[in-house]
Design a protein that fits this description.
Layout lengths: L8 E4 L4 E6 L10 H5 L7 H4 L3 E2 L7 H7 L23 E8 L8 E6 L6 E5 L2 E6 L6 E4 L14 E8 L2 H12 L41 E6 L1 E14 L5 E13 L8 E7 L5 E8 L8 E6 L21 E8 L5 E9 L4 E4 L16 E4 L2 E3 L1 E6 L11 H13 L4 E4 L8 H10 L2 E5 L11 H18 L5 E5 L6 H6 L8 H15 L6 E2 L19 E3 L21 E4 L7 H7 L13 H5 L6 H12 L6 H24 L12 E4 L22 H9 L3 E11 L17 E12 L5 E11 L5 E11 L3 E9 L20 E8 L6 E7 L15 E6 L5 E7 L4 E8 L12 E2 L4 E3 L5 E6 L6 E4 L8
Keywords: Glycosidase, Hydrolase
GO molecular function, one term: beta-mannosidase activity
Enzyme class: hydrolase
Amino acid sequence: MAAQVKHCHVFGLENSVWSWKQRAPAGSDYWNEEVINEITLLEDDDFVKGWKKVTSVPSEVHVELMKINAIPNPYVGFNEHKVQWIGDVEWLYRCVFPFDVSGSHQHALLTFEGLDAICDVYLNAKKILSTDNQFRTYTVSLDRSQGETKAPLSDENTLLLHFKSAKGLAKAEEAKYGKVRAGSTNLGDPSRVYVRKAQYDWRWDWGPELMTCGPYRSISLTRYDARIEDLNTHAKVIIDQDDTFQATLVADVTLDGDLELLRHGSLDLKLFGADGHTVQHTKMPIEEDTTARTVSVTWTKLHEHGVELWWPVKYGNQALYTVEVSLANSTGETVDTMSKRIGFRTVELVQEELQEEDQYGKGTSFFFKINGISIFMGGSNWIPADSFLTQISDERYRAWLTMLRDGNQNMVRLWGGGIYEPDIFYDICDELGILVWQDFQFACGVYPAHDYFINTVKHEAEDNVRRLRHHPSLALFCGNNEDYQMVLQWGGIDQLPARILYEKEFPDIVSRLTDPPIPYHRGSPYGGKGWDTSDPTIGDVHQWNVWGGKELPYQEYDRLGGRFVSEFGIPSMPSMSTIKSWMAGADESQFYSQSQLMAQHTKAGSFERRFAIVMNENFRLTSDFATHVFNTQLMQSEAVSFAYRSWRREWRGSGKEYNGGVLVWQLNDCWPVVSWAIVDYFLRAKPVYYTIMRQLSSVSVGVFRLVHKNRDNDRPRQFYEYGAIQATGASLQIWASNNTVHEIPVNVETRFFDLYSDWSDIRTVEGVVLLPNQTTEITEMDCLYPQHEAKSTTAPFTGSGSVVVCVRLIDPTSETVLARFSDWPEPYRFLSPPDPKLTISVVDSGTADEKMVTLDVQRPAKCVFLSAEEDLDQSGFSCIKWTDNAVDLVPGDPQQLSVEGLNNRKIKYNYFGQPDLA
């Protein structure tokens, strides 16, 4: 009788006994091989003393040091500078785990899903692995058949991880290969390009320099005779001309181990629906003479079995299915299982010649089609949500991505200076209908291309493409972030050695390993015209000519677009509560915008001058810190929402997709900081989060106010002028965006309110039909204003310079408001809004933990922003969730929103022009 295959056992080492310590310095040159060999002296008393218990695995050394109060919290005060030594020294992790050496399994495999980053691995005093790539999955075979030197397992085993300084390796590689350009000094030491470690660890213009290390992802030991090595699913969809579809699934099962032991065994494959019902089932015997290590099963006509398409949020359901494969031995006993959750959809990146010219010329499109439907992408760029990756819980990932979804965003771009996120991130995107733009991890640098570097990066790319390819949310792989842009931006660069990765290796890997194919884009930004990455007529662009670059007024965003804007933004200060978190223990004298502690938590280059320009242009100067903080948030909200509104307007229908998507920089923060984030580190949304949400509603309305002036000038077109240039009047352009796939009839109501009198007026356009999946231009009109004689204390040509315009789209049948937008006269520094007589009423909604809040005014109010003190939950993050906020209000149009988590907390409010907030 043939020997039976035993069950495959996977043992996660996180439940074993772990300890850590700093390695005692053994000399100045810790790259010397003799010094490295000292690591094997496990029985030396001096070597093993001083170990501390690891609090949780996965682990990072900064976290362990904080938990024993060996270092201060680097997110507070100036503490970042007190912990820099950690990245200069070596660290040890030790794990003691059992192993049944009497077991009959033929194979053993150690798998390291993430070691950060430069690490020698020892098992029972024998080196079994050296790693230098944080993004790779490493496996070590400990097969019995390979002899005792290869399989040093015993009843009790010691796994030792020796982490060396990534900074030290980077500098050693730089000395060997030469110093290169890698962005500005705010983007970390240029030597970072030589090490495959999260680039933001070296610091970025929104993040601290915290060079941590450790086993930041799982480590497991697998024992087996035979196992399922991989399950590769190919969910194929054909969209027919009548909008029906055909669905096919191919499942490739790769086996590992002793196949002769599997004779007369079987593979059992099942496809389950979300509710657990079986859609398809195939059981395949393993033939006696089989030598094939990959077995394929094809299920056709799945649409006839009730399979549905997976859709992005707001376009349909996120139908998900589970493919499960079981491997059984000849007695029918299951020895291994593997599953993947999949969805059926098509994804296309459309780059085709446009029918007509726009303001930039003709060029080509850049937009996405999902299941044959052209979809405008509105979303955010994502950076790692913490400088210490092990501190990001699954619940925190879900909270972040749910905020993105609830903010009417349908795409997230994973930026190339962070990490390939863990599986849970992409699982949540699948569930929420969020499309993923995935950068390969290269950012703002001239990366090397020597053989060893290319080889490790190819392994990195293959590991992550294989891991992610089955997710229906995955829409694009992109070669790098801003590496092509480096050439013209910084000068003195005439070549990118790593082009071989972006233009050959990555597209080859994506093409070879994904079927159906995932679109690939060689860089962001990139347009295909040499080094010019700023051409608005082709590819994607990063628009940094407002904050940075030419430092243009944000009122110019409508002239600064492109076919797809994958980065743009403007920073603001976070809430006062967040600022207080890093001011802990600081003297009150530090609570002003130019203080040392504010500078410590503002990493952006030239931020003092840039903030001064944009704030001085648009708002009155104030010495009240809380008012200044709120005004920066209002500035960010106005700037970014104007960009979204203007660029979405250019989604004009088939053949006229002049802008196919907008991704703001950035959704989140990795620590408490002044940054571009629209939601701060503690999950506190800034006003801009809500204004973006309204701009990305399925139906939205826009207004552009063009101020007429008495002579040509270079001032913002929206500004009323009272100096050498005089405003003589203003006209309005009104349009609506409809991202649904059907026509929507509306009546358009335009109301006018004077800030300084009781005057108001109204104009209505009835019977307007919003065309599906595009912008509809509605009307142009003069901006009305009260015909009263100007007071002697006012400027001579005020006219509409004190008039607020509110446009609403109203359903003609139900008379419900589908969309609204208020346009205020600019610049805001000229305005002195009177008390709006704001009323806030709060009642229980009838749903647990939810309250309904109604806001009403007697005078127009801009950016009424609600918050609550003591809003953090036990995990340390905000528990308050508003369905809307930062709203503009006008008389006769009360707005209602709901809030969760308020409990008995008192509501606070801010609005533009409110007396000092301190």
